[in-house]
Amino acid sequence: MTTTDSAAAAIASERRVALTADGSTDGTAAPPAWVVLTTDGRLGLWTAPPTSARVRVVPCDRRGRPTGTGAPVAGQAEVVRSGAVFDEVRGRVREKYGWRSRFGARRVDTVVLVTPDRPPTPGRPS
């Protein structure tokens, strides 16, 4: 498991995360999102689409304020509205969050997949 993989797994174990556009510094809280790890190592978030493809995912409280309890994961976001990965994320969200997921499913019709950035390999140009 690489450092990036372990950071993604740590974020996926959180109860709630905030998805923000990379470089966002306005200080406002992002809506909290539910998060799971997909079979291919991406983060699957059950939330509204971000405003940018470059994003950061951080642990947050129920109001979307970062908790500072875990390292942020930066990556590339992709919005998915159907298909196998959409179904996988929805199923994993139901497993992780149980009965609460029935309420969120009515409000959100998108999954945001975040492919974490890979750290540069030492000795190789980036």
UniProtKB/TrEMBL annotation:
This is Pyridoxamine 5'-phosphate oxidase putative domain-containing protein.
